């Protein structure tokens, strides 16, 4: 790879799970023996800044919260093909199911941090340069809509973040940052692989004085694989092909020495097949965002952000015979949605009062609107048979926060944050069409709710090699329009919506220690304890509904999610780096009114045990190789813990070699030993991805003045 090397992964007390899996995670420390890249000096790791944990630029080493950074070099060396697969390599990050977005539509790709009640709806917030990227209707994430060539780094804060970010940040925040616009520059990737996989991406950027612009495009095609196990497969079961194309343009301008402006727009198109003729889904998405930042000497800095999006999600559902030899369409569903919003954040100048205070305050607002049009194909018709249904609703939310970062001394810092939110659901409506001609309708009562979210964190460094961190917080998540109004089906299991859902609320705490030793050895331990009140869960009904629905979304009562993250990494030499991590999560239902059988059960869709091991050899004059082992324990598909799925150990591999000029050749393998394991058991068993391999070429910095490569042993590798 051409260009400067950057630390592979920066970790800030990421506890027992410094996401050791990606090639070369770097810690918040200097690495002995490292040399600066040939093209530009690499700043010491502890001077690097992160933004997400405090909503302000802060040195990584000083942030009083668990934070992980996956920098640009890690993105390039990862063997993963999609963004969700990339973030899932961190030990405390998961999506709802084990299948990646390559073979699963976005409704199964909800972000889950630290085992906090996984579901198709994300319990973590995804940001793109500070603005929300979660779906406005369902809360899920269109991971493939974010071209990887345009990303500079990913920051992950796996702890309650509502005090800064409001509802969607119940379990934490994942933020993606765009690459700085320099130029002229042209980057391109092209690769092919088994399973009919083809990938192409390009990015071009340039700068003209105070103005810069970039354009990124990406396309992917895959034939997928037979997702149903052979012993359950019938004549209707085939591969799971998918396609996507995306494009994003961005413009930045320094209007004056104190005022900077930026704008971006993007489009995305995705089609997927779930393995049969009538299990298909598609997404069409277009979005726009703009921001302005004003810096003043006396009053501090002001940053304004605006965004908007329109999209259309469509899904077909199927009804199959028990032997899976015959299939008919059971439903068509179209979900158009849109949202608009904005935020204004003020950061004050430093204040001196018993130390240094940095005050920040902000306000944000968001409006989401969506509709679900559903056409049903029942097995038989009577005058009361339901054959069409339309639901709609609108949600408006807003919040205001204030934060004080109080540095008593270099060894002691506190962060106090308080946020107040309100949201209102209105215009909720259900229209049903019956075969006999009747069209009953229901208007749902508007509902308004409010929430206060505090957070207090501290960072103590009694010795230069020892850092202690602790925090306590309260967070919440309001139900999405999808949960309130849209029913859905996975396999043969139908789940009903629930317009009476309330917000989920979380109380939690975490504490961690990070220590650096001789010879580049670093260890971390972080423990966390969360209590989730009224989590929205797909509950199995004692008696099915008239249309055959067997589950319904309900506020479940209470769950306790506690655990510990352990991590260690060791730079054996300039070329060799070894990393290991283990995450234990104990998610248990502790109270379930009306569902006593659920008490003591493990929350579904997340294993208690996850482990990672990665070994990297990186010498640009020879080859760069990363081998990683991902291990995860058994988990359950359902809330009653009757449908178990075994654990697995999966090996991935990435190899790259410089060829000539600015061209590298690379190879990537996921599931090297073709380990077969279950991804879901929703009526029919489904398999996780098999052996996937691809080879390709990379072109980097075509128009740059230098083609110098990073020196071996650059910090973090």
From TrEMBL:
Membrane topology listed for this record: Multi-pass membrane protein
Chief location of this protein within or outside the cell: membrane
SUPFAM superfamilies from the UniProt entry: Porins
TonB-dependent receptor plug domain segment(s): 60-173
Signal peptide (UniProt feature, chain positions): 1-28
Keyword Transport: yes
Database matches in Pfam families: Plug, TonB_dep_Rec_b-barrel
Lineage: Bacteria, Pseudomonadati, Myxococcota, Myxococcia, Myxococcales
Domain TonB-dependent receptor-like beta-barrel: 267-672
Keyword Transport: yes
Family: Belongs to the TonB-dependent receptor family.
Keywords: Cell outer membrane, Membrane, Receptor, Signal, TonB box, Transmembrane, Transmembrane beta strand, Transport
Cellular compartments annotated: Cell outer membrane
Protein name, per record: TonB-dependent receptor
Highest taxon above the source species: Bacteria
Natural source organism: Corallococcus caeni
């Amino acid at each position: 790879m051409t260009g400067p090397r950057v630390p592979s992964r920066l970790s800030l007390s990421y506890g027992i799970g410094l996401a050791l899996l990606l090639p070369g995670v770097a810690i918040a420390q200097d690495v002995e023996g490292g040399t600066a890249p040939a093209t530009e000096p690499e700043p010491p790791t502890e001077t690097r800044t992160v933004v997400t944990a405090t909503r302000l630029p802060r040195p990584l080493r000083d942030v009083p919260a668990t934070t992980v950074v996956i920098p640009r070099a890690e993105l390039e060396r990862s063997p993963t093909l999609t963004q969700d697969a990339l973030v899932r390599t961190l030990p405390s990050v998961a999506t709802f199911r084990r299948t990646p977005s390559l073979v699963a539509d976005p409704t199964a790709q909800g972000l889950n941090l630290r085992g906090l009640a996984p579901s198709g709806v994300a319990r973590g917030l995804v940001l793109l340069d500070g603005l929300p990227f979660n779906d406005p209707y369902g809360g899920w994430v269109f991971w493939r809509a974010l071209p990887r060539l345009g990303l500079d780094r990913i920051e992950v804060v796996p702890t309650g973040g509502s005090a800064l970010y409001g509802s969607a940040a119940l379990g934490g925040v994942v933020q993606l940052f765009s690459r700085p616009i320099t130029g002229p520059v042209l980057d391109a990737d092209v690769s092919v692989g088994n399973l009919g996989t083809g990938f192409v991406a390009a990015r071009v950027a340039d700068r003209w004085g105070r103005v810069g612009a970039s354009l990124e495009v990406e396309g992917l095609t895959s034939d997928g694989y037979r997702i149903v196990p052979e012993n359950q497969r019938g004549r209707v079961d085939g591969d799971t092909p998918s396609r996507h194309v995306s494009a994003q343009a961005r413009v930045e301008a320094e209007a004056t020495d104190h005022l900077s402006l930026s704008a971006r727009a993007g489009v995305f198109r995705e089609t997927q097949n779930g393995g049969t003729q009538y299990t298909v889904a598609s997404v069409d998405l277009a979005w726009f965002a703009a921001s302005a930042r004003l810096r003043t000497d006396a009053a501090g800095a002001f940053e304004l952000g605006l965004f908007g999006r329109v999209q259309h999600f469509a899904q077909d559902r199927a009804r199959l015979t028990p032997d899976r030899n015959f299939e008919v369409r059971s439903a068509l569903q179209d979900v158009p949605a849109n949202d608009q919003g904005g935020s204004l954040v003020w950061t004050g100048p430093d204040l001196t009062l018993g130390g240094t205070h940095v005050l920040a305050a902000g306000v944000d607002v968001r409006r989401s609107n969506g509709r679900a049009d559903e056409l049903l194909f029942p097995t038989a018709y009577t005058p009361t048979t339901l054959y069409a249904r339309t639901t709609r609703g609108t949600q408006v939310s807003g919040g205001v926060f204030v934060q004080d970062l109080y540095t008593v001394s270099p060894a002691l810092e506190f962060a106090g944050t308080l946020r107040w939110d309100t949201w209102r659901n209105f215009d909720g409506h259900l229209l049903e069409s019956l075969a006999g001609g009747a069209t009953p309708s229901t208007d749902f009562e508007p509902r308004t709710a409010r929430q206060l979210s505090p957070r207090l964190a501290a960072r103590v460094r009694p010795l230069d090699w020892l850092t202690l961190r602790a925090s306590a917080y309260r967070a919440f998540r309001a139900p999405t329009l999808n949960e309130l109004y849209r029913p859905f089906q996975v396999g043969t299991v139908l789940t009903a919506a629930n317009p009476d859902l309330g917000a989920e609320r979380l109380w939690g705490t975490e504490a961690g220690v990070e220590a650096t030793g001789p010879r580049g050895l670093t260890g971390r331990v972080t423990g966390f304890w969360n209590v989730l009140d009224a989590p929205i869960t797909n509950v199995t009904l004692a008696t099915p509904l008239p249309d055959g629905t067997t589950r319904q979304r309900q506020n479940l009562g209470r769950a306790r999610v506690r655990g510990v993250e352990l991590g260690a990494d060791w730079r054996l030499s300039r070329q060799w780096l070894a990393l290991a991590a283990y995450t234990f999560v104990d998610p248990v239902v502790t109270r379930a009114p009306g569902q006593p059988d659920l008490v003591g059960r493990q929350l579904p869709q997340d294993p208690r045990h996850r482990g990672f091991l990665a070994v990297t050899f990186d010498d640009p004059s020879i080859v760069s190789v990363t081998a990683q082992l991902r291990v995860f324990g058994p988990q359950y598909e359902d809330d009653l813990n009757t449908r178990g799925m075994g654990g697995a150990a999966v090996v991935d591999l990435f190899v790259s070699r410089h060829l000539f000029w600015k061209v590298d050749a690379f190879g990537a393998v996921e599931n090297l030993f073709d380990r077969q394991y279950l991804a879901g058991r929703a009526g029919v068993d489904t398999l996780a991805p098999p052996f996937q391999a691809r080879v390709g070429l990379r072109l980097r910095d075509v128009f740059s003045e230098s083609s110098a490569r990073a020196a071996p042993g650059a910090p973090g590798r």
